[in-house]
Specification:
Elements lengths: L5 E5 L4 H10 L11 E5 L10 H17 L4 E4 L7 H7 L4 E3 H9 L6 E5 L5 H11 L5 E6 L10 H17 L5 E4 L8 H8 L3 E2 L1 H14 L2
Parallel strand pairs: 1-2, 1-3, 3-4, 5-6, 5-7, 7-8
Helix pairs in contact: 2-3, 4-8
Length: about 220
């Protein structure tokens, strides 16, 4: 993309997720603000669903960031794959949507809950939260048990989102909920209304940080 903008990178090859990212960050597109482009990685897996998927996309992400003239980057996968490597690769700001979502959630409530797509991802997320030193602020994390491509099934995804997020609120004591996958963006506003709690879209959170970094530079 052109210099001066924010590049949002979906580390998988699912164009539907990338299109959803574009819709989620549309509100940040202002006449006087930085341009925002959302792209995917054609060489990446169709969804980031395992530790192997996370490891596979790290060199792809670092290479894309090194070669792009954007002034800020967002890694649009909740596991923040390769965040340290990407920050070492360029002297420009790089934001992960997982870290950004959790930092934002802590400004909106006392304890946050996370809706994961698969239970297998939860140990990876918990390790990351511990490394960030914010595990005391976590109320809990529960999984939809849906694959990334299944999130497009609106009726099924919505039913599971309400069930899982309600359990985070009523059983785990969360007073703010994070959507733990970039593919859930379309459900944020509706779920917030349903729960009566703040619901954080992680891509919006990261783009907000990137926008602030560029506009205050």
């Amino acid at each position: 993309m052109a210099s001066g903008g924010i590049l949002v990178i979906n580390p998988d090859s699912n164009p539907e997720v990338t299109a959803g990212l574009g819709r989620a960050v549309r509100r940040f597109v202002l006449p006087s603000g930085p341009a925002i482009a959302c792209v995917d990685l054609p060489e990446g897996p169709f969804g980031i669903e395992s530790a192997a998927d996370v490891e596979a996309v790290v060199p792809l992400l670092a290479g894309r960031i090194r070669s792009d003239p954007a002034d800020a980057f967002v890694i649009a996968c909740y596991s923040d794959p390769g965040i340290e490597a990407c920050r070492r690769a360029v002297a420009k700001p790089v934001f992960g949507i997982g870290e950004s979502a959790m930092l934002t959630a802590m400004t909106r409530g006392r304890r946050f809950g996370v809706v994961a797509i698969l239970a297998a991802a939860i140990p990876r997320h918990l390790g990351y939260i511990e490394r960030l030193g914010i595990d005391r602020r976590l109320a809990g994390e529960r999984a939809l048990e849906l694959r990334v491509h299944e999130l497009a099934d609106e009726a099924r995804t919505w039913a599971r989102l309400v069930e899982v997020a309600t359990a985070l609120r009523d059983r785990d004591g969360a007073d703010v909920v994070i959507l733990g996958c970039a593919g859930m963006s379309r459900y944020r506003q509706r779920l917030e209304h349903e729960l009566g709690l703040p619901v954080i879209d992680p891509t919006q959170a990261a783009v907000g940080f990137a926008f602030s970094a560029l506009c205050s530079a």
